[in-house]
Each structure stands twice: as C-alpha cells, then as structure tokens.
Amino acid sequence: MEQEAVATGASIFSDKNFAVALTIMFGSMMPALAIGWISSKAMEAIGRNPEAAAKIQTSLVLTVAFAEAIAIYALVVALIIKFV
Fold first, then answer.
1. Cys bridge to 42: 29, 60, 70, 83, which one at CB 3.0-4.6 A?
2. Average pLDDT for runs of 10 along the chain of length 84
3. Please, are residues 67 and 38 in contact by the beta-carbon 8 Å criterion?
4. How far apart are alpha carbons 44 and 77 in whole angstroms?
5. How far apart are CA 59 and CA 74, in angstroms?
6. How far apart (Å, rounded) are the C-alpha atoms in residues 4 and 23?
7. Is the CATH number of domain 37-84 2.102.10.10?
8. Is residue 35 a contact partner of residue 67, using CB atoms and an 8 Å limit?
9. Is the dihedral of CA 77, 81, 82, 84 positive or negative?
10. How far apart, in whole angstroms, are the C-alpha atoms of residue 61 and residue 5?
11. Which of 61, 68, 79, 62 lies closest to 23 in space, CA to CA?
12. What is the pLDDT of residue 14?
C-alpha cells in the first residue's frame, strides 16, 4: 500500500508538502520574531517616557496587527501551494 502511494507521488515527504512546511515555518517564525522585537522596543520606550504610553501603545497595536497580517498571508500562500 505504501509503495503504491510513493509510486504515485502521494508521499508525505513530497516536494509540495515540504514547500508548505517551509512556508508555514518561515511565515510564522519571522512575524513572531518581529512582534517580539516591536514589543520589546515599545516597552523600552514606555519605560523611558511613561507619559507617552498612550501614543506608543497605539503605534504598537497597529504595527503588531500589520506583522500578524504577514503571518496570515503566509498561511494563505501555504494553502494555495497545498491545494493547487
């Protein structure tokens, strides 16, 4: 049974599945690192100037939303690779 799947190209280790895995890996890892870095810098800025916390927090939330959107785009690309 497994030999038939390998012969037809339906292996779990096929090139398409590998491309999907890499897309999801980098598509989630890089925005996660960016969100951590952005949040770290925002906390440093709030620590230096607590009076500007409201302005910094607004920019932080907006920037994190844009970084999260990149992760969603990576998911869409992975699904396109998987099913097309």
1. 60
2. 56 82 93 95 96 96 94 94 90
3. yes
4. 34
5. 23
6. 28
7. no
8. yes
9. positive
10. 47
11. 79
12. 82
Q: Is 31 exposed, middle or buried (0-12, 13-18, 19+ CB in 10 A)?
A: buried
Q: How many whole angstroms separate alpha carbon 8 and alpha carbon 23?
A: 24
State pTM to two decimals. 0.75
pLDDT at residue 40, as a whole number:
96
Chain position carrying tokens 């491309």? 19
Output the DSSP codes for 40-81. HHHHHHHHH-GGGHHHHHHHHHHHHHHHHHHHHHHHHHHHHH
Q: What's 36's DSSP letter?
A: H
